[in-house]
Amino acid sequence: MTLGYLGPEGTFSQQAARDHDAEVRHIPYSNIPSVMQAAEAGEVQEAVVPIENSLEGPVTATTDLLIHHSPVVIRRELVVPLGALATCRINMVRIESRPDGRSLGRYVFLVDLEEHRTDPAVADALEEMRASASMFKILGSYPRPAAPGASAAAGPGRRADRLT
């Protein structure tokens, strides 16, 4: 069996394809329409394409093809976890990824968290990420402005749990 995915190698789509079935032959395609066309033509028996990503949210190229141009149907959702943040119940306000410019498939992630870096759960997650990243840098950490009428006792980056 063969499985097509949105390449190149090193992408989250390749990781999702491997997570789905590591035993089959994986074929990278350069764009979403090519992956979908390969599935339609029977060149691959299954295809992995992004329907949502961490940079832009919904991937409209995929949804537009599924809605308007392709008989291919979704059979399964594959989720590629982002690591420590996914298991620590930390609210990410925003995540942005950019190619690192050094090699294909390597990315720099900019993450905006709801809590302050001194919060124990955040500190643990950041330390776990630091240990597994080739480069790790905190660009800033600052307390969230207190809501009008909120207690200052809430601490850096925390919402007040009572109003005065």
Question: Short summary of the structure?
Answer:
The chain has about 160 residues and is α/β, with parallel strands linked by helices.
Structure description:
The longest helix has 13 residues. Strands 2-1-3 form a 3-stranded parallel beta sheet, with helices on both faces. The protein has 164 residues and is an alpha/beta fold. It folds into 2 domains: 68 residues, D-Maltodextrin-Binding Protein, domain 2, CATH 3.40.190; 49 residues, Alpha-Beta Plaits (2-Layer Sandwich). The protein has 5 helices and 7 strands.
Report the CATH architecture of the largest domain. Answer: 3-Layer(aba) Sandwich
> Biggest sheet, in brief?
3 strands, parallel
- The helix tally amounts to 5
Helical coverage, percent range:
25-40%
Properties at a glance:
three-stranded parallel sheet; elongated; Alpha-Beta Plaits; alpha/beta; disordered C terminus; D-Maltodextrin-Binding Protein, domain 2; 5 helices; 164 residues; 2 domains
Which SSEs are present, and which pair or pack?
Elements: E1 2-6, H1 12-20, E2 25-29, H2 32-41, E3 46-48, E4 52-53, E5 57-58, H3 60-69, H4 84-87, E6 92-99, E7 107-113, H5 120-132
Parallel strand pairs: 1-2, 1-3
Antiparallel strand pairs: 4-5, 6-7
